[in-house]
Amino acid sequence: MSSSQPLVQMLFGDPSEIFDEETLESEEFADYLEYMCSAGVDNLIRQKDGFAEEKQLVLKDTKKLASENYKTFIKSSDCVASVNERFNDINLKLKQLSENIPSFSKKYQSFNDDISDLLNQKRQNNQTLLKHNQLLETLEVTQLMDTCVRNHYYDEGLELCAFVRRLEKRLGHISLISSIGNDVDKLKQVMLQQLFQQLKGNVQLPLCLKLIGYLRRMDIYREDQLRMKFLQARGAWLRNIIRSVPQTDPYTHITKVIELNRVHLFDIVTQYRALFASEDQVFVVNISANNLKNIFNSWILHRVNDFLQMLRQDLKAGASSRIESVLNQSMYFGLSFSRIGADFRMLMLPIFNEVIVSDFEDKLKVILCHFKSILACYTFASSAISSSTVVQLIAQPGTLNAPSELVMYPPLSWTVNEVIAVLNDLRGCCPVSCENEVVHCMDCFVSDYSKVLAEYFAAEKSTMTPKEIEVFIQTCKAFKEILAPFLMKAVRRVFKLNGNIPETQIDTAGNLAALEQIFK
């Protein structure tokens, strides 16, 4: 075509407007163009007529063929139309198929995944069936643990706990194993409560050793925490025993409390020292020996404080009537604790001193109150006292006897008898440490006594006869010069039975200032 292109352009101008590219490139077009170039002019002129004749022949043959094969052409046309229609349907369905292929691919992939999961489940089920017995034993661990806890089979229960702990380390990601572990932990807490409940009972040292051994194997508490829990449990048991003691009689209650504390508290200390190593022999990370020692010391101090509080309450409630017996038992209790380095006798002395001084002071107040009643109905008529009105003075062998001159003054002789009776009660239990407080109480009594005399004189002076005033003043002088010094000496004699009381220690001037108005 490239060699004949100039000729084609000369004959047809732009051949692309007349012929398509395929025709231009065909061999028939090139051959016919070569024939035209080689033929003469006459042949070319006749060629037109030849074309017309050939066209007529072709048309004639075509008509004849159409008439002879009409039905065939109809059928062929119908067939072509049907084929075209079928091809159109095929094209439509292919288009739909191409549109559905991505969805189908996804569903196929999902189906393939489901099949893989089913195959995995099948393999797991087969594996489960092969290990059915082992799985059954594992599933029964919770029930076995519950049985052990209910029947107090703590050794077997702790072995199951250890087994489950190892199982969780290897297979903790499995929900079933995790659930079994949670159930066993709950039962383990129940076991822990049972162990502490037993520690709160009346248990002896062998059982304590077993219980603390179980607690250590449970590995829940550190060394210091375990000591605290043991002391708390035993302390709760001791408190329950003490609370069960009847409180109807304060003396019986405090003596029983002393006995229970002395026996059981010492047993608890013995158990503690047997169960736990000495603080100097303990090697625990982040726990010093001082901390462990402070735990025990603080607990002992707490128990002692509870006892001291109870002692104070019972003494104030009425046990002070037999305070000597209570003091002896309490001191023996405190002394017994010196074996464990906890002698607390000095802590009890302030309590007994307070009760003794308070009781002594109350008795003196009662005497003073009764003395006021006596003055209200007594008449200072004469200094001559008949034998029928003489109040006999109390005299105790080996003690400081009251001055005989006081017999002439019945109010004073009554007073000295009452005070001596109170001092005799005090002598049965009079710690030297409360001497100053007792002497101070007597000082106050002498001072109040003189004020009562002064108030009586101020109130009754206008109604008294000169003779009564004279007798009253003599009574006041006897009180100042005889009774007051005697009382101050007697109260000191209680604490110094065999010693002489120097006169320099007897100073009543400051306590008798109220009487000065009477003597003027």
Distance between the termini: 174 Å
* Uncertain residue segments: 280-287, 384-398
Which class best fits the helix and strand makeup?
mainly alpha
What number is the mean pLDDT? Answer: 81
Helix content: over 70%
The proportion of residues in beta strands is: under 5%
Structural features, described:
- Helix content is 75%, strand content 0%.
- It has helices at 5-12, 21-25, 27-38, 41-68, 70-130, 132-139, 141-150, 154-171, 175-199, 205-218, 223-243, 250-275, 289-317, 323-336, 345-377, 410-427, 435-460, 466-493, 516-519.
- The protein is rod-shaped.
- The model is unreliable at 280-287 and 384-398 (pLDDT under 50).
- Helix 11 packs parallel to helix 13 (289-317).
- The chain has 19 helices and no strands.
Please write out the topology:
Blueprint: H1 5-12, H2 21-25, H3 27-38, H4 41-68, H5 70-130, H6 132-139, H7 141-150, H8 154-171, H9 175-199, H10 205-218, H11 223-243, H12 250-275, H13 289-317, H14 323-336, H15 345-377, H16 410-427, H17 435-460, H18 466-493, H19 516-519
In short, what is this structure?
The chain has 19 helices and no strands.
